Amino acid sequence: MRVVLMGPPGVGKGTQAARLCARLGVVHVSTGDILRDAVEGGSPLGRKVREFVEGGQLVPDDLMGDLIEDRLQRPDASRGFILDGFPRTVEQVAILDRALGNLDVTVDHVFILSAPEDEIVRRLTGRRVCPGCKAVYHLESKPPTSAGVCDACGSALIQRSDDEEDVIRERLAVYAELTAPVAGTYGERGVLVEIDGHGDPDQVAARLRDAIGTEGDSA
Ligand code: AP5
Question: Domains along the chain?
Fold first, then answer.
């Protein structure tokens, strides 16, 4: 099963992708996580992309193309994947088409999650993440058992530098300008399904499960 999960910053892509991967037995490919790891590790890629990621701007398409082609060719992606955060520009749709064509596979579903902007800002300003195991929390809707400590691995939780309110506004503006047209492209192809991102994560997961139907049950 190969799924593209789209939607604005903070709508719940990562939360739902993790659940879908556990259910379908496929790998979670989050371009945001890959880029943040590169920045934290100080790799040559990390040094090139740091300013873009921390400022809420998109990393240039040529860098993203190499990154995604390499990631989708790895053996763990051969059984399927949930793509979270890619494609984010119309050019990246073409890059993905080429990468999938080279692998002789296609995408089964393209979902776009939606939620009102004030809810998105609330979700992002309250988000805390584990730098160790990447678990995601929220101060109100999903607090850790012990304040500031990851339930899963015990690391100290952090706030992402791009979850400051001014950077969140910038990310939303970038989404409206550059990523919303991607939905138009998939809509024209007749493959885009909108999923209401309102409500708690269980409710959203149930909507995704219904949209995938029985295909996912054989996994
Ligand atoms: P990326 O990491 O992809 O960030 P994003 O798309 O802005 O998405 P987020 O990770 O912020 O949010 P999410 O939708 O996953 O929400 P989450 O589940 O965490 O990208 C970061 C940066 O990397 C970009 O700005 C760019 O610089 C670069 N980049 C990445 N991909 C790129 C690309 N393809 N091209 C160029 N540049 C790229 O949920 C948010 C919070 O809400 C959490 O606290 C969660 O617990 C809570 N929550 C989730 N669901 C619910 C719910 N139903 N009810 C209540 N709370 C909820």
Answer: 2-115+173-218 (3.40.50.300)
